[in-house]
Design a protein that fits this description.
The chain contains five helices and six strands, in the order βββααβββααα. The chain is of the alpha/beta class. The radius of gyration is 21 Å and the shape is elongated. This is YgjP-like metallopeptidase domain-containing protein.
Length: about 180
């Protein structure tokens, strides 16, 4: 296992609080200048644990494998779509150029861009509900959107995806046309 890069920044203005964040592949820990080296070691270890816990909570368990993705779809279908949207397969695929995911209703297959492996679980859930809704309604019509909006964080997730796309200059919409009439990739 590679050792994590850590940068400790001491501040004379900081009196009691310790905070940390990730900056690329480096953990930055902000501590009071008056802390001893032993206290510094303690707080660096604590903040690394805290960041790992937060990151693990944030990532969806569905990001682990295609099987986990299919299981999550089954759960979401039962919760938001009356169990009526059952895909034949769901799989992670290399990053798509113009979509977050796609669905081929004829084959009942869903493909999810690996770009979404690191998004918060509620965003991935929205994308899965969106694709599952296509198994019931192929077009982006009012009936389709009524199904999608059964997911309570739909609007928030669309905004997140639009922000992610803009930040990475991808040009992908949170609600882009994602049905794939041609099942061949």
């Amino acid at each position: 296992m590679t050792e994590e890069k850590v940068e400790v920044r001491r501040s004379a203005r900081r009196r009691r609080t310790v905070t940390a964040y990730r900056d690329g592949d480096t953990t930055v820990v902000l501590i009071p200048a008056t802390m001893t080296k032993a206290e510094e070691r303690h707080w660096v270890a604590e903040m690394q644990k805290k960041l790992r816990r937060t990151e693990n909570k944030r990532a969806s368990p569905a990001s682990a494998s295609d099987e986990a993705l299919l299981l999550r779809c089954t759960e979401l279908s039962a919760r938001y779509l009356d169990g009526a949207a059952q895909p034949a397969s769901v799989r992670w695929v290399p990053p798509m150029r113009t979509r977050w995911a796609s669905c081929t209703p004829m084959n009942r297959t869903i493909r999810v861009s690996e770009r979404l492996r690191e998004v918060p679980s509620w965003v991935l859930d929205y994308v899965l509900v969106h694709e599952l809704a296509h198994l019931r309604v192929a077009d982006h019509n009012d009936e389709f959107w009524a199904l999608v909006h059964r997911y309570p964080k739909a609007e928030r997730a669309i905004g997140y995806l639009e922000g992610l796309s803009a930040a990475a200059n991808l040009g992908i919409s949170g609600d882009a046309d994602d049905t794939d009439p041609n099942p061949e990739e």
